């Protein structure tokens, strides 16, 4: 399918105001001229799960920019427009933070009261030796429990991330070009996108769209839980296509959670490998971990595909 005239690939790295009224008129005209049917009439339901496609990760100059993300977003927008009549629903997750969270510098101090720099990795040994402490002494026991729980579960070490995806800030918003494509799709298909907030729990990291890294605190007290409602919603689709940022973290853990908690979905999972990139920042490079994760997902039955491949030619959808 041709691409709409308003779509300018070179703007994908910009922050701009979407002209909703104009896009809505164009989407309605597009529906009529291209014979696009309402999503509710789809014989085969396809969900696009767009993980954290936000300025904070995808726009150059923002807080936790992932190299490769602008190109990923350009390909993702083109994928949405080319497959407008095939994508039934778009689910967009929004990483959502405030300053005082366990993975932000304000939460931790050293013995001299200084906060850690971004990308500091905090191990069990670091906490037990007193190299890093909870800034609020009342939360020290939780910090000790938390890093042990991460290690026991084979998760990444507690990482001090730059302040990012701050609630109410521009970084929290979807990339403008992606927001525009999501809006255009909703009007053209007479359906509404679904937005899922994640990551606002101060006591745990929350990479996966489906649940936090640690669900129970000291003494077994629940501090978070799996998003069962979202899992059950995704299970209703014939295909779930996953893209977004970052391949090594939020995308990888989302897919891993789906395979663990909804294994029946495995043959219906399609991972857009050219619409996601790993975290690479200075000395921190998670490329190997990301590639190894995608290899595991493929071995578990998920399909690794490209955005330029016709959906009708994907395995299981032909």
Task: Label this structure with key terms.
30% helix, 318 residues, alpha/beta, 12 strands, 9 helices, two-stranded antiparallel ribbon, single chain
Give structural notes.
Among the domains are: 17-34 and 68-95 and 174-202, no CATH class; 105-159, no CATH class. The model has no long low-confidence stretch (mean pLDDT 95). The protein contains 9 helices and 12 strands. A 6-stranded parallel sheet has the order 7-2-1-8-9-12, with helices on both faces. Strands 3-5 form a two-stranded antiparallel ribbon. The protein has a two-stranded antiparallel sheet with strand order 4-6. With 318 residues, it is α/β, with parallel strands linked by helices. The protein is 30% helix and 14% strand. Helix 1 (20-34) packs across helix 6, helix 3 packs parallel to helix 6 (176-188) and helix 8 (250-261) packs parallel to helix 9.
Give me the secondary-structure topology.
Blueprint: H1 20-34, E1 46-51, H2 55-58, H3 69-82, E2 89-95, E3 108-109, E4 121-122, H4 124-128, E5 133-134, H5 140-152, E6 158-159, H6 176-188, E7 194-198, H7 228-234, E8 239-244, H8 250-261, E9 269-272, E10 280-281, E11 284-285, H9 287-299, E12 303-305
Parallel strand pairs: 1-2, 1-8, 2-7, 8-9, 9-12
Antiparallel strand pairs: 3-5, 4-6, 10-11
Helix pairs in contact: 1-6, 3-6, 8-9
